[in-house]
Amino acid sequence: MNDAVRELYSENRYPDLSHPVTDISRLWVSARAGGLERLPEPAACRVLELGCAGGQNLLPLAARYPKSEFTGLDYSDTAIRKARQASYEAGLHNIRFEAADLEHWRPSHPCDFLIAHGVFSWVPDEVKTRVLDLCGQVLSDNGVACISYNTLPGWSLRSGLVPLVKALANNPAAAGLGDSVESVAASLADMAGGGTAHAANVQAICRDMVKKGPTVLPFDDFAPVCDAVYFAQFASWAGERGLRYLGEARLQDNLPDGISPHAFDRLAPLATDPILLQQTLDLLSGRTHRNSLFCRVDAMLEDGMTTGVVMNFAAGRGLVELPPVESRVVGLFRQLLEEIAPSCLAMQELVERTADRLGAGWEPSRHGRELTGWIYQAARLGGIELRSEPLEIRSHSMAAPRLSALNLHFAAAGRPVVDARHFPCRFPDGHERLLAAMNGSRAADELAEHARAEFPELDFHRWLAHLAERGIVE
Ligand SMILES: C[S@@+](CC[C@H](N)C(=O)[O-])C[C@H]1O[C@@H](n2cnc3c(N)ncnc32)[C@H](O)[C@@H]1O
Hints:
Blueprint: H1 3-10, H2 24-33, E1 46-50, H3 58-64, E2 69-74, H4 77-89, E3 95-99, E4 111-116, H5 125-138, E5 139-152, H6 156-169, H7 181-192, H8 197-216, E6 228-230, H9 231-240, E7 243-248, H10 261-267, H11 274-285, E8 289-296, H12 307-310, E9 314-317, H13 328-340, E10 345-346, H14 347-358, H15 364-380, E11 384-387, H16 405-412, E12 417-418, E13 424-425, H17 431-436, H18 444-454, H19 460-469
Parallel strand pairs: 1-2, 1-4, 2-3, 4-5, 5-6
Antiparallel strand pairs: 5-8, 7-8, 9-10, 9-11, 12-13
Bound molecules: S-adenosylmethionine (SAM).
């Protein structure tokens, strides 16, 4: 085991992060879109997270799905103690945390969802091998693994920049550029100018380093191990463990940004060789990172996004603005999504309501096909959100706002609260004290009074409305 990696995590300075990309509600959709027909639903499944740190990612999922079983594994005792404390404070009985080195850990039961986020590229080779071996051993017959890793050739410029930024930060002759890696990165971004494609790339990488900042960089770009791999190589290693590539965890990541729209048409025949297709997309897009889904090679697969499959999902408005459409039926459906935002409703109900609005002109099979075709394309562009189940958000603030038991604990412990869509929420220092006071026993006006005294600049009621929109207060 690489001592530098162990030392880094034993101090447990790793930031508390939840990762929306690993939300099992959306993983379920993406795996079904990849054809994994019999993947158990999030509401009744077993989930394993490798390298779970302090549980910030797994705990909110366990709170959301009380009938499912969650296991988190990490070799940092401090992180595991912190995770256990949170599950105890939140009264969660469906989650357990194990402090163990995954190199020697033996699973006791199969899992339907395996999450390994932020692990593979940041551990020594023997642990990488073990991560993949575990996926091959522990996935249930119809389970899915979501593994994140850095990819080549996109990552190569970044890995070339890292030693240079470090050398400049440590060289007195370069003192004018700054004395930390972040300040050197900021100077390089400034000097790169962006006049050529290369300079623009250097600038973007350096700006991204500045954005990650000193809390994340030591665990990411500047970690003792930070490797990248070609997708085709990764898929081949997975294949050696009896795993098959299904697609990316976020539907929209199957079509990386920045590629000419014609490229997808021209590459369409390559659908028969999905690995080469994906590797070509990485080459064209310069993608640096993936969150890939794998299932067992012998898992039951069907034809992805058929109308029948889409009808199993729930939908809501996505984050990306979509272009206007001609179709009346699609227009009515979109209008409905706007009206229910930020909630998501079951597809069946959305389709029935659309049919009601269209009236006598509704032709179930023609319009059903038209809608589901559009829904799939819109979801791949990020314009609509697909989930395994509806999400009800009452977006007006409550008289006596209340956070979930888990978010109350997170706020009291100074950890970020996590919203209904699994996004971590960061607010200015001290605001967590206000959140920790939202336990349903104080009226909104009383809290506003308190906020006025402590944070005069805060528009409390507006903030409360924002928290309600994100499904943080009930
Ligand atoms: C970069 S952090 C990622 C944490 C979290 N999954 C995330 O993405 O935010 C890597 C985590 O893997 C854990 N880890 C690294 N090597 C490990 C090993 N051999 N066995 C168990 N955990 C390990 C570390 O303790 C750390 O919590």
